[in-house]
Amino acid sequence: MLYSFNEEEKKFNKPPLEPDKFNKEVLNKLSLFQKTLLITDGTVTELLEFFLDEKIKVKKLEEEIEQESKNLPLSHKSLIKTPDFPVLSRKVLLQGKTSLNTWLYAESSILINNLTSGFRKDLLVSHQPIGKLWSKYRLETYKTNFTIQKEKADKKLADYLTIPINSEVLSRTYCVYSQGKKTMIITEKFSSESFKN
Questions:
Q1: Is residue 11 part of a domain?
Q2: pLDDT above 60 (res 149)
Q3: Each residue of 73-117: pLDDT tens digit?
Q4: Does this model's pTM top 0.85?
Q5: What total number of domains does the chain contain?
Q6: Is residue 29 part of a domain?
Q7: CATH, residue 175
Q8: Given this model, what pLDDT does residue 69 score?
Q9: Distances from the Cα of 183 to the Cαs of 91, 115, 175, in angstroms?
Q10: Domain annotation covers residue 138
Q11: At a CB cut-off of 8 Å and minimum separation 6, what does 178 contact?
Q12: Which of 55, 96, 167, 190 has the smallest set of CB atoms within 10 Å of its CB?
């Protein structure tokens, strides 16, 4: 199932999230924290750290500079235009630093020419979550084009999240703008069995 809404990208003064635009029937079946993860305009890393009471670390799975869209996630392709390339395609897991539990899988398509040089360097060499880098560089961000989806986990995603194949997964995809420029498209996925209480 797919539920989404789009806003004009230039309306930066309008709140990016209007919960009534989401399918309330789907959201009502979720726990409060699951709903929060799907519709928050804040950083997921900080929410996870608060909820789980442990620091979150990034485990990089893949990181490639792409010159065209063919290897980008399908949900990202329509949001990236030819002048946006090169794009850093990145796949990571967000894990508990102490427990080593994997809580979330994320795919990012990052328009590296729209980032500051320091942010870009840290993104490539550090293992810090993107949300932490936004704070480090004091970047104001605006998120838009949210899409919420339910899907079944294929083998790869099931292995990443340590769940059975075909288990239900909740995800969201959104665009991030900073200083008036689109900087990245992010998809975050987690098991619908996580964060129920």
A1: no
A2: yes
A3: 999 999 999 999 999 999 999 999 999 999 999 999 999 999 888
A4: no
A5: 1
A6: yes
A7: 3.40.1410.10
A8: 92
A9: 16, 7, 8
A10: yes
A11: 114, 115, 134, 139, 140, 141, 142
A12: 55
Residue 82's contacts (CB-CB under 8 Å, 6 or more residues apart) are none
| Residue 99 structural domain | 2-6+17-191
Each residue's pLDDT tens digit, 46-73: 999 999 999 999 999 998 999 999 999 9
> Look-up: residue for tokens 């959104």?
174
Residue 197 in any domain: the answer is no
Task: Report the candidate in 88, 80, 38 with the shortest Cα–Cα distance to residue 60.
Answer: 88
Burial of 93 (0-12, 13-18, 19+ CB in 10 A): middle
Token digits of residue 62: 């893949």
Residue 158 corresponds to which amino acid? A
> What burial class does residue 146 get, using C-beta atoms within 10 Å of its C-beta: 0-12 exposed, 13-18 middle, 19+ buried?
buried
Query: What's the rounded Cα separation, in Å, for the pair 141 and 22?
Result: 21
